């Protein structure tokens, strides 16, 4: 509503209004107490001292009183009491003068807590509270004295008494104080001001002022006073937030200042008492809830109040009211209430109706009710001076504010001369409350459902000397001066109104009251709005700041006049305001009498459509707002909130708003713009679905990013958070009537895990039954990946609710990894410490000649020093061109890795001879048998460096200038860093560091930007559940094999760090120099193996000699796929849902069946058909009593434990035992032929620990030891290795390894997490990949690299694990064509994906997939032979071109390019010939050493045989490997052209238990027999 201008008669004179507003309000320089206090700084005798030797303790009330005094004989008492919710109350009172203490503001008298003075000296005291051990208070005597508010030993804020003043100024008693917020970068609070959210530094401007005034057309971006006063300040930083609340309703000025490491609030107050509450936080959410706990939360609003409201100053007649309601209905604009301003009354006399314009108010209300609309009318606090007016007559002399002489105060307002109800008087409140009763307010019915308390600052016209309000010295009940309660006058009016409505409706309906003036605690009684704003862009832009601020100070039911109350806004602004207003809790259109009518239906049709869409968007989201109000009522959390409430770092963004935590709105608030920039909160694993688009067209946007969107007038951007469930209505209604019974659309916004959770609240929408009888229901909604339904569980209340749900599931490609969960180098101690540490303090060997040889002359050792630390360096030369170097502290113990090196092939040390020292700076170590062993080592001193040579060439060097080995404690954290740099002197490329989704060649990670920042993180080795991992990234994945090969055409050498702790490795390519790797290791031992090749085949063999080779697989396990419609199939795989509620080694009822024999029947059926079953067994054991695996493990102390540790070896044996048929009953071990060990990084669903086990957990390394001696940090990367070792042990036991009669089957295990040596126990796959072309291409690099580091049994999920992006048919068949050349071949998808079995695609796609799979099955003999060769020599099964050529026999070039019509194929070996065989085994041959272009437009996937090879296949179409074994093999003899004739070259074949004519044959025999037995074999000659 408008303010006055200069008289009642001229209030429509708009220009006069503008002139008046410009000159109206006083600033600090106009107020004596502010002028005095602002520049005051206590010195000398003014400074207060805390008399700590006179402290008094009231143990009954838990109040401590500290006397304060200064040299001017001013004496104060400071009362301190600790309260619940980490809050401290500080009340400072004058000993000789009693000041007024306001009442009713707090929701209840807060409970005090017991405290102790835990330490104290003559000049300080420390006080702690019994029930809140983290909270303390430090009082320093002074002078000036100070109080430090301490949380967990850290000072959060300080009461600075240098600004403490109690004085009687010209304008009454006043006081001043200052609070400093340590570390705060932003301050918030001091609602209500029309400004940005962050409080400004007011050094060069007037301080913020609290003096509730009728400031119509107020200035924006100003510290001017407005309609409300909530004296709360929050000091905020990314790390912490604290706050204060001054319970005082007098006029206040607050000076805000920022310094480098602190911010301060200096309160200057013109009356009342210093009653301060300090909130310890420590988070922003905490301080908000601590404040709300004091001042209270409202009851729930009625559901209709959350709809749209239509108002104007004024709808002059009841016919106009009916017309507005009718036209809104006819034009399909939702509206729930029509509002009446002052002109409905008879001569501005409230609780009356204008006899001519509203002759039948009851009939009008019935008309509205028939349309499901309600009525709201205005009731102001001024009462017309008219003896004939019953409201005035009943209050005269009793219930009005008085002057000093005892007469009723009279002033001008809308009615003319008026008196003002003294709402401080409880009887006056009762009196006014009574007038709201139906029988007193004649013509009112239940349709008059709400009231509007306006002008209640209070506003008084023609009172410029008092800033148009009551005189400060006017008197209230109990002779309280108005100056002491000015800011809570409106609060007291709404308290009376609320009381009246509670009585009127017999406490059956929740009152609805809207107030303009408000104070702390008003939220318990009324909604608020931002007052008489202007129809301009600046006022639109500030509304979000105003209402977000009101929400974080408890006033959650806030809104703004849509379109602006004053002026005639342009049409674009009106539309944008409707769009923005959707997301404010209170949603009302309102305008002044002198403006053009602007109900939605008066605009042009295209404008109407924009407004209609906005209002309908609001109504669809009413379930969200209603649920958020319930959450506020229950917990105090805001309904809407600024971004920094949920994301502390996202400050200074005022045009975005969060509704709860799940909806982000960023409407357009600028004129004539075509784009809108949106700042998406969160980190890299937070995603937001754009929800203002048509469902199905939603786009997805990553947190922590900024995007610019094209916008037109119809665009109003809002987003749903991934991981949320948002419940919206499914009907377009014109009011809220029936909305609670509507069908709901449940938007499931899946997160990166495919999961979502949300809440929905339901009750009767109007009564207090939710409070009185728990007649409500709060549902928790959960969605699990792949489900077709949402699980709704009532978690609060007793109401039975029938749901009508339409499910909408959104799960776009969200599988990029959370870089807040999975940390970057700068967030990890070891990497951030060592990466920037270019050179360390140098290691020194005092005298190279003072070494020690062991008794066998196989190890040489030196004492080494660095500063004062002592170390031992040991070097061994190992058989087969390998070297072992170990560095260890002499006085500290580090964990040494066990079980990784192959126990069947332990590295054999050689006898060595140290050569003479040269110049005291170097010594050479060489083998005694230098004829056969060509590797030597040179150790250099000052500084320590080590060179590794083969046949005289230095291939590898350990650069000692970067060598770090720290073992110390800093800030209670044990640091065990290892850092070293290795150079590869003859190399030009580096390979290794498996597992990463990168190209084979390791890229340079040390490249920097122009400002000196690294462009890339180092490669990270830390086994992690990085589902949806990024392609072409150095981030950690599921496995860790710390091996690097330095390769060139001339030579290859490698290193292997025998350490399972977290590692970061920088790769650097020196221009015109040698490439190098910089290892940064978190803990464990320095145990380095150097492999000196000198070629790639030798280096790979040397590494597999160290860590072991895979055993031969069973033939059936070479591949995995589904079989339908003549698609080959060998095994069905079961993920976790086969179990009884995720309890491993159990079956659920869907498998056991009612007779308990379902599993045996299933397995027997599979076995009869030659198929196998593989089931998943993860390492985590469900914590459930009665579950035998848990019970026995707990009893045997076999679980990883905090601090005490776990019997880890015994745990493996125990775990292995559960694979027996007795423990894991199935009856058919020959069919249940494999086990899948997943989630074994290990994965733990706790984002704060990077989704894994905390590194401080303890393991036991020896089952016979009583000591838990191994930190998880030391063995993290081998956890999965140990898991598969246990499983392997279990399967060997199950299949009778100890029975000499029954020979054991070779176990088949698939593992996700792996380390060096895992190949001895399990196959591995690339993990939870994404169905996109980048991941498909990277999968080849991943598996070729895994083969180079011994993990030959590797594959990738075909055609990608995750649901999104939904793969095209082209991508699917290309993935199958690529996958047939992986050693491990499995189709696998997530449960939320559409089924992707081959037979589900169109026939042309099926045929391409079938052709690929048949080619795979035809080559089973080749795969089997390659595995045999690996077991004998360590050679890879698949390999990159640089490994082989000149070399092996089959070359595949899958298509990784989307839409490719041709591809380039590089045919290696200039002396080779290549036969193309994917196109029907034609005689098409190509010369090697060239690139050729191949047509793939018809789905071809090029494959070639090498000339000179013999390739053995089975050219029969079979549906399993078991069926294939019945048929003869086909031998492809691919002749090599040499000069002018063809030279036949023999291939080799290994057949499991091969028998021919009843005899067993060796490898050579088999080849000969295959050549000579024409009855068994089909010859195909290739020329």
Automatic annotation (TrEMBL):
This is Glucosidase II subunit alpha. Residues 636-726, 1434-1511 form the Glycosyl hydrolase family 31 C-terminal domain. GO terms for biological process: carbohydrate metabolic process; N-glycan processing. One of its GO terms (cellular component) is endoplasmic reticulum. Keywords: Endoplasmic reticulum, Glycoprotein, Glycosidase, Hydrolase, Signal. Pathway: Glycan metabolism; N-glycan metabolism. CDD domains: GH31_GANC_GANAB_alpha (cd06603), GH31_N (cd14752). The keyword Glycoprotein applies. It comes from Callosobruchus maculatus. Residues 298-628, 1114-1426 form the Glycoside hydrolase family 31 TIM barrel domain. One of its GO terms (molecular function) is carbohydrate binding. Residues 1-24 form the signal peptide. The lineage of its organism: Eukaryota, Metazoa, Ecdysozoa, Arthropoda, Hexapoda. Residues 78-253, 873-1066 form the Glycoside hydrolase family 31 N-terminal domain. Gene3D superfamilies: 2.60.40.4040, Glycosidases, glycosyl hydrolase (family 31), Golgi alpha-mannosidase II. InterPro entries: Gal_mutarotase_sf_dom, GH, Glyco_hydro_31_AS, Glyco_hydro_31_C, Glyco_hydro_31_N_dom, Glyco_hydro_31_TIM, Glyco_hydro_b. Belongs to the glycosyl hydrolase 31 family. It comes from the Eukaryota. It is found in: Endoplasmic reticulum.
